[in-house]
């Protein structure tokens, strides 16, 4: 059963200009996205920078208000709930940020950062807060004696562990991980991913894992949704990434990955041209200007995300016509 669903989610940001700061345009960040994540599942959200993946995640946890569409969490519509009604639900939805330093208050110790969350949400009685902080630090792979240190005294990987401990403090069910390892060294990335995997199994967590690295997503996630210019263009299980990718954009992303075998001389799909402006979306398929399989229907109508076998969906006219 789905824990969280996006139904036709749209998020536009107004562009203000002129003497009276009137709206002169809009940034079309997310454009009618449908996405469903089952309880206990880890779904990767992948795409180039600026494709709208982080914006979609922040809309789902209500850091951004949706322009249109519905957010269904645990079978309840939370799309436009007021703050007082949303507050208890927020305990079940937490976020791990990309920048582990910028997301922590530099003037607060780790003890204060974690204690503030526990007191605000009244997770445990005040006389148990200290023990609870020790437990959170241990779960996140940190020693108890770091509780009186400040964020600048930690490495990047340690700071991200503090961010994970803060997210776990309220015992959430769903976690938005917004590129949580992109700012870390490769060796530290593996440690953080292993920690997130262990926590998912021990606490039955559900993840939306935002990333631009298909290799990381393939290793960590169950299923992947690939975004381009605010649209999801393909969804499929991560086990099928190597052999069953169908959308030209998805194939180009795979082709851009480093190949481990130096003797592998396979031909790569290389993208040409620039991403269209999200202020003025093209008519028809958003990928048409860079697609090697473009045809007349691509320039006229936006292809819907259609099922293509079990747990696989693609939005592409060329795939529907058998040209891919």
Explain what this protein looks like in three dimensions.
- The chain has 10 helices and 12 strands.
- The protein has helices at 53-60, 83-90, 110-121, 129-139, 156-168, 186-203, 214-220, 248-255, 296-300, 317-320; strands at residues 2-17, 22-38, 42-46, 68-73, 76-77, 93-96, 174-178, 206-211, 223-228, 231-237, 306-307, 313-314.
- Helix 5 (156-168) packs parallel to helix 6 (186-203).
- The longest helix has 18 residues, at 186-203.
- The mean pLDDT is 91.
Task: Give a nutshell description of this structure.
The chain is an alpha/beta fold and 324 residues long. It has helices at 53-60, 83-90, 110-121, 129-139, 156-168, 186-203, 214-220, 248-255, 296-300, 317-320, and strands spanning 2-17, 22-38, 42-46, 68-73, 76-77, 93-96, 174-178, 206-211, 223-228, 231-237, 306-307, 313-314.
